[in-house]
Prior knowledge:
Helix content is 60%, strand content 16%. It is of the alpha+beta class. It folds into two domains: 3-138 and 258-378, no CATH class; 157-237. The protein has a six-stranded antiparallel beta sheet. Helix 5 packs across helix 6, helix 6 packs parallel to helix 8 (343-366) and helix 7 (308-337) runs antiparallel to helix 8 (343-366). It is elongated, with a radius of gyration of 28 Å. It starts with a helix and ends with a helix.
Amino acid sequence: xxxxxxxxxxxxxxxxxxxxxxxxxxxxxxxxxxxxxxxxxxxxxxxxxxxxxxxxxxxxxxxxxxxxxxxxxxxxxxxxxxxxxxxxxxxxxxxxxxxxxxxxxxxxxxxxxxxxxxxxxxxxxxxxxxxxxxxxxxxxxxxxxxxxxxxxxxxxxxxxxxxxxxxxxxxxxxxxxxxxxxxxxxxxxxxxxxxxxxxxxxxxxxxxxxxxxxxxxxxxxxxxxxxxxxxxxxxxxxxxxxxxxxxxxxxxxxxxxxxxxxxxxxxxxxxxxxxxxxxxxxxxxxxxxxxxxxxxxxxxxxxxxxxxxxxxxxxxxxxxxxxxxxxxxxxxxxxxxxxxxxxxxxxxxxxxxxxxxxxxxxxxxxxxxxxxxxxxxxxxxxx
Length: 383
């Protein structure tokens, strides 16, 4: 294949890929964008913090949308070439499907390398920056952790509900707080007004409440104390929420750099501790970029279908394939955590399934056969 044709295919694919990446990332992030806009305009959080949060969230979204956009861009680009008869012209010039798809496999190496950099270096750094930015937001304007009309679990073993928040002063009205930090002395506090302030040095928050009632349950489940107060202060330690599968006091594996993750795994293995979460995260960083290399096997056959009806279904099949792939990854993570399969085996199974299926339909497309064999009953009905 000549250089001109390779550049032409790369341009067609590149334009579709960039458009698909921008669209899919926006669709995935649109709900979070609305929350960030609410933080900036309704909650008084500085715009610089909101913009930083959005930038730090992008790597997590790109890690998902990158393979999706690449798969769809191949289907769209090859669908356009097929519709305009350019694929037939390439066949007429002596090229076969493997030769036509060769530049696409080269493009997949670049996409996979970008996905690897995102997973191994960029996303852990961005995740750490998200937590740091949220902590800074909490110190400068702690009411950003609260939402009116919503039960907030921002604080460990403390649930806070506020009826309304004054945007300019941060004053709280109709406050309800359930404090379970002491299992032997749980307390529920109701107050008509309140305010939340922070101590930057001690990294704690002070919830100042006015005109309320405290209900404290005693050791006996049938007895409690009721105390009315005019003014009451409650101290709350700010502790950003961590992953549900992360040990208390430790850094989630998704926030660790590659070398830190490997060192932590080695340390846990040496001390005979479970390293399941570290193994899962290591394999996840390798599996998704490697899966990107397999996408042309699946997308090219879908894109070169000559039937208009089949081409129109190709996009739906592509989206379904991506959803099934991520569903298999989720099942693989569960299987690894429950010790049903070894983490390496479980995490690589989706790639093996996709690679086998992609190779099967790619070979059939090269031989100009239907991508899937017809069921026996359809053949008998045709006769």
